[in-house]
Amino acid sequence: MALATSGLQAGSATTAGNAVESSKSAVSWAAIIAGALTATAVSLILLALGSGLGFAAASPWQEARPSAKAIAVTSIIWLVVMQWVSSGIGGYLTGRLRTKWVGTHTHEVFFRDTAHGLLSWAVATVVTVGLLTSATSSLVGGGVQATATVASGAAQAAAPALAAQAREYDIDTLFRRAQPDASAPAGDTRAEASRILAVAATGDDVSPTDRAYLARLVAARAGIPEADAQKRVDETITKAKAAAEAAKQAADAARKAAATFALFTAMSMLIGAFIASVAAALGGHQRDEH
Prior knowledge:
By secondary structure, this protein is mostly helical. The protein is 83% helix and 0% strand. It has helices spanning 2-19, 29-57, 68-97, 106-174, 186-201, 208-222, 226-289. α3 (68-97) runs parallel beside α7 (226-289) and α6 (208-222) crosses α7 (226-289). The longest helix is centred in the middle third of the chain and has 69 residues, at 106-174. The protein starts with a helix and ends with a helix.
């Protein structure tokens, strides 16, 4: 009876032993952290090198200054190179330094190696972003805060100023004389003309009535024929509208450049993740062979 019981217990232990998996984790965090730190260091080195080359290429002279398109293309290429090199080195070290898995299927080994490379890239990315954010905050934090404060104050003051200018323009049209007074103070005349031209700067066209009034106002103050004054008015309105359009185009170009840079940054990061995974698989394969 005791022998049978002992046999049942031994069978249970064998069955349990066959069913229970190893308690050792499949993740080699030491190798991952080592590869991630190496990738971070290489990224910082390449970033410093790229910044130095960029400052060396920049020039205050117009004829020697590279175009904005050339700078953007070069920055994108260097960003991809940074991810490629740093992720490849970090992933390869992770694969070579990880613990060898004995009795594991080759497909599982390949999956674990690629996962280790991906984790190494993720840790390196988080550390690099944290270091760059900390350095940038410490260097320009005060300036950014001051700029944000000034910009916020300017934005809050802009709306009331525009509303007040619109009210002044309405009042000007309410008391506008058929023939401008040439003896009126020059400051008042300039202010009234500025308020009329501000309509052109906002993107709306100046009405024919305002154009005619400006022409009479310029003719009275400058002592020139009304036809010549009309030409001056048309040229001034055209310049104001062109300046406003140029500002809009510059803002739109900046928006497109920021969107393009963000998209290529995401693409370079995906490339880095892929390279790190492949490099870790290569390093792990060589580790098992040797």
